[in-house]
Each structure stands twice: as structure tokens, then as C-alpha cells.
Amino acid sequence: MKQQHSASDTAYEKIRDAIFEEKYERGEKLTEVKLADELGVSRTPVRDAMRKLEEEGLIKDKRVINPTIKDLMNTFDVRMLLEGFAVRQAARYMGPNQIEGLQRCVETAKQGTTEEIMEANKEFHDIIVSASNNDVLIDTIERMQSVIFLFRRTVVYHQRPRLIEEHEAILEAIRNHEEDKAEALMKSHLKKDLDFSIHSW
Amino acid sequence: MKQQHSASDTAYEKIRDAIFEEKYERGEKLTEVKLADELGVSRTPVRDAMRKLEEEGLIKDKRVINPTIKDLMNTFDVRMLLEGFAVRQAARYMGPNQIEGLQRCVETAKQGTTEEIMEANKEFHDIIVSASNNDVLIDTIERMQSVIFLFRRTVVYHQRPRLIEEHEAILEAIRNHEEDKAEALMKSHLKKDLDFSIHSW
DNA sequence: TTTATATTTATTGTATACATTAAATGGTTA
DNA sequence: TAACCATTTAATGTATACAATAAATATAAA
């Protein structure tokens, strides 16, 4: 049942994480042979991995991307549209158990460890996104995560002020089925995220 | 300067077109060896091509996709969000020469051949999308085209009523910098597209 | 018959060799 | 020196062989 992941998968993860950890510099050219040697596999799985990373936008033309502020703004503009839509669906259709899930995320974010807090806040958004019940939308947002993660220095981001309060406000709007309010709150929330990411850059 | 395309590229195009022409049935399993034989190449470029087709959503789990109405609706919901945003930017920032381009699309659509009309209407949307000046948005819409095309029976779609008039109205709103109106018109335009595609299914 | 377990077959995953193309180097001439 | 071409080197594209896995078929026991 539990399929161990293939050489391609591990290659993908390792290269991705290496990029996140800045083991490879922004703009650095990645060659198949070099990566294959480092990972101890042949070029084939490395090629697979690189193609996947190109899809996500972490690699472009065989080079580690070096996103600009504009790239981040573009990503967030799309994200605001999609998550704005998703949160409307959430406000309309979410049942008590799903709302409960959001509530738990907020609680964890109030008292967990740094790691747990980051995780819970991510989960909060994931739950709302999946409430859209739209696979195209879900996949699109998923694909953008890597670039967002690459841009955001997690150490600093953890201290982003008022984040939990904003989540709470969004949750409250969902609970009260206030679509317009939920959308507006989500958009301004993401806007603040963007601004914080830019200014702590 | 002009790079001839590789075996991977031609494999991609041939398989994609074969899917469009329903040479391969919906849901049919595509195996690498079979395709490689048919195309007269090795498995390697076929794998590349299949991976690209999976990205686009034309293949899923090695099978030709068989999109449902819900899939189409999901795609259009996202498209409405993104093109709605794009047309706002168009209304705000488009210069006379770009507007001229849109005008030409409308003209061609009024008197060209079937082929030209289809092309011009596609171009109309492309120009607006690119006016968003947002690569993330542009790429996202681009990726959705294959599924839309697969779903739309072009023969029938050519007769979609009032399409040109709707484009004209959108163009007029852009010309007058009426953002809200442009967005509303674009969304209802796409909604009619969706409905037409569903009903002519 | 049905279920379960081997055994075979088909398909995909991976490594590697070779072909082709692109990049880099070095030398020659204006 | 700078610009050009030739030659080498590196990198990617493609084919193919072999390995591992998944699917299908056959065989045996309940």
C-alpha cells in the first residue's frame, strides 16, 4: 500500500530543499551531471526532478530562479483572487466540522511551538482553499507555494504581527456566512502578508 | 537562430493533437512503448511529452482525461476570476495601439474565414490577458487552454451567437476605461461561453 | 465455483552509451 | 586590442539495455 518514493521523487525533494536552504544560489546554473553526482543517481531521475521544479517555477532555464518583487506581487495578485473566491465558498458552504478545523488552527497558532504555528497557519489557508471544491483552483494555488516559500524568510515571518487576529476575523466572517466580509478580510490579510514579505526582504 | 524543435516537442504536439482529434479515446491508457512505436522515436521523448501533457491536464495517470461538466465549470470559474482581473488592467492601462489590436480582432471576426474567426477571437482574449502584465496569471490561463479546447467542439462553437457583439462591448468598456463594466462584461461573456459549451455537449 | 497464491507478462523506472547541440577556449588577423 | 573563426570541451537530447514494479493469467486448494 505504502509506495516508497522513487529516485525521481527523492531527487526532487533534495534539490528543492537545497534551493530553499540556499545551498544553491539564486541564478545558479544547475547541470544534470553535477546534480546526479551529488545525489548518487543517474541523470534520468534528475531530469525528471528538474522538470517538476521548472513547473513550479523554482527553476527556469536550468537556473535557480531569482524572483523579483514584481514576481512576488504577481503571485499574490493571483493568490488574492483565488483565495478571495475560495473564502466566499467557505462562508457559504462550510459545515460545523470544517469550521471546527479552522478554529483548531487558530488555537494552535496561539500557543504552539514556532514550527507548529507555521504549520497551523498554513493549514488554515489550505482548509479554506479546499472548501472551494475546485480542483483547478486548488492545484493552481498549490503550484505557487514554492515561490512564496522561497521568497519568505520563515524566521522573520514568524513574527508577522496581527496574523492570528486576522485569521480569527476571517473565521468569524465564515462562521456568520458573511461572504463579502470574508473576501475583503482575506484580501487585506494577504495584502499585509505581501507587504510584510517585501519589507522584511 | 531558428531552432528546429526536438523529438520531445514533436512527440508532444502529435500526441496532443491526436487527443484533440479523438484518435485516442477519453480514458484510454497510453503506454510509452506504443506511442514510441507509433511516432518512430524512443521512449525518452515520449516520456517528456507525456509529462508535459500531464501538466496541462490532458493526461492523468497515463490516461487521456475524460473531463466532466464540473471540471469545465471549475476551469471557467478560475478563468472568470483571472480574465476579469486582466480586463480591469486592460481598461486602466491599455494604450491606443493595443486597443487597435483588439479592434482588428473584432473586424477579422466579422468577415474572415472560420479558421480566421476562431483565431481572431482567441487573439482577442490573449491580448487582454497579456495586458494584465502578470506572468503568473498569463501562465495559469495558458495552461488551462488545452482542457477548454478539448471540451469545446470547435465546429459547433463557431456558431456561438452574439460572441462578436460581446467582444465589441468589452472593447468599448476598455476604450472608455470603465473597469467595473469591463469586468462585468467579461465575466458574463465567459459565463455564456461556458453555458454554450455545456449545452452543445 | 470461488478464493488464494504462484508465475508469467507488460509497463514503467533507472542507468548508461552515443549523438547532437551549445558553450568555452584559443589562436589568427584586421 | 578587438573581432572572427576553428577547435575543443561541456551539456543536453536521444536511444537502448537492464531492473523493479505492477498487471494479468494460470494453477491449486477450499
Jot down its keywords.
elongated, mainly alpha, 2 strands, 2% strand, 201 residues, 74% helix, DNA-binding, homodimer, two-stranded antiparallel ribbon
Kindly describe this structure.
Two copies of one chain form a homodimer. The first copy, chain A, is mostly helical and 201 residues long. In chain A, 74% of the residues lie in helices and 2% in strands. Chain A has a two-stranded antiparallel ribbon with strand order 1-2. The mean pLDDT of chain A is 95. Chains A and B meet through helix 3, helix 4 and helix 7 of A and helix 3, helix 4 and helix 7 of B. Chain A binds a DNA duplex (30 and 30 nucleotides) through helix 3.
Determine the N-to-C terminus distance of chain A.
Answer: 44 Å
Number of helices of chain A: 10
**Protein chains sharing the most extensive interface:** A-B, 17 and 17 residues
Oligomer: homodimer
Global geometry of chain A: elongated
Q: Tell how many strands the DSSP assignment of chain A holds.
A: 2
Strand order of the largest sheet of chain A: 1-2
The helix/strand class of chain A is: mainly alpha
Parts with pLDDT < 50 across at least 5 consecutive residues of chain A: none
- On the 0 to 100 scale, the average pLDDT of chain A is 95
Quick one: biggest sheet of chain A?
Answer: 2 strands, antiparallel
Query: What is the rounded Rg of chain A?
Result: 19 Å
